[in-house]
Amino acid sequence: DFIVTVVFSFLWLVSSSAWAKGLSDVKVATDPDEVLLLMSACKQQANKCLPVRSPVMSSLNTSVVFGYLNFILWAGNIWFVFKETGWHSSGQRHPADAMEKQPSGYNQGGYNQDSYGPGGGYNQQGSYGQVDEYGQSQGYSQSGPTSFANQI
Fold first, then answer.
1. Where does it reside (predicted)?
2. For residue 48, is it left (φ>0), alpha (ψ between -120 and 50) or beta?
C-alpha cells in the first residue's frame, strides 16, 4: 500500500505539472492578439480585425488547482500509510512489550496493579455494620475483585 501510494502521489504531481504546462501552451496558442497576427486576412491594410472577447479559462485554471490539491492529498496520505507499515514499527526506540508490562512494584492510586486474584489486591472482607430496625446487626461481606482494569 505504501509503495502504491507513493507512486500515485508522484503520478499526480507529474500529471498536474504536465496539464499546467499544456494549459499554458493552449493559452498562448489561443491568445486573440496572436491569432489575429496569424490570419492572412488581418494582414491586409483594408481589413480591420479586432478580438470580440477574451477566452474564458477559469474552469481550466480550476482543474489545474484541483490537480495540485489532489497531489497534496496523496502526498499527505503517505505519512498515514507509512505508519501502518512494518518499517514504522521497526524504527521505534522502545519495544512494545516493555511499554505494556509495568513492574510489579508499580503502585497507582494506592492499589497494587499486579495483585489481582485470590491472594490479595482488591479483596475486602468484613462487615459494614448496618443495624436493622430490630437492633440486629447485619453483616455484608464482599470478596473478590471489585474493579477491573482494561489491559490490552
1. Membrane
2. beta
